[in-house]
Amino acid sequence: MSDHATTQMKYGAKAKTLKSYMTGLTLSLIFTFSAFAVIGKHLLSVPASYITITALAVAQLFAQVICFLRMNVSREGNWNTMPFIFTFIVVGVLVGGSLWIMYNLDVNMM
Fold first, then answer.
1. pTM score, whole prediction
2. How far apart are CA 110 and CA 107, in angstroms?
3. How far from the centroid of its chain's Cα atoms is residue 24's Cα?
4. d(Cα 10, Cα 75) in Å, to the nearest integer?
5. With contact defined as beta carbons under 8 Å apart, do 28 and 64 qualify?
6. How far apart are the C-alpha atoms of 45 and 35, rounded to whole Å?
């Protein structure tokens, strides 16, 4: 086996393909332009716009992670996926905790 194939099997990443990159680019552009359209044309109410923008951002994150970083949930890919999930948990706790603290400060200061 070649050294490149050994490295891919060792770290569990999918093979690099033009199709994967083009799919990722297309999905990223669709999600980005959809977000611009929702906000620029005022298609939804303000709360619905926030929810839509958040959903589009999460969808774009997953599209980029799968297509560009080639993350997968195969047995070999768990070496890449588990630290990524842990990072999401840590960032979620930090962001959620910060918002909770700011909300409580706002309520108690007013």
1. 0.67
2. 6
3. 12
4. 11
5. yes
6. 14
What phi, psi does 42 have (nearest 5°)? 55, 50
- What confidence tens digit (pLDDT) does each residue in 60-85 have? 988 988 888 887 777 777 777 788 88
CB atoms within 10 A of CB 35: 19
pLDDT tens digits for range 31-60: 999 999 999 999 999 999 999 999 999 899
Closest residue by Cα to residue 23 from 55, 64, 57 = 64
- Identity (one letter) of the amino acid at 7? T
Q: What's the CA gap between 41 and 106, in Å, rounded?
A: 32
Give the DSSP per-residue string, 14-58: PPP-HHHHHHHHHHHHHHHHHHHHHHHTT-S-HHHHHHHHHHHHH
Burial string for 75-101 (b: 16+ CB within 10 Å, else e) reads eebeebeeeeeeeeeeeeeeeeeeeee
Structural contact between residues 59 and 33, judged by C-beta atoms closer than 8 angstroms: no
- Cβ atoms of 46 and 68 within 8 Å: the answer is no
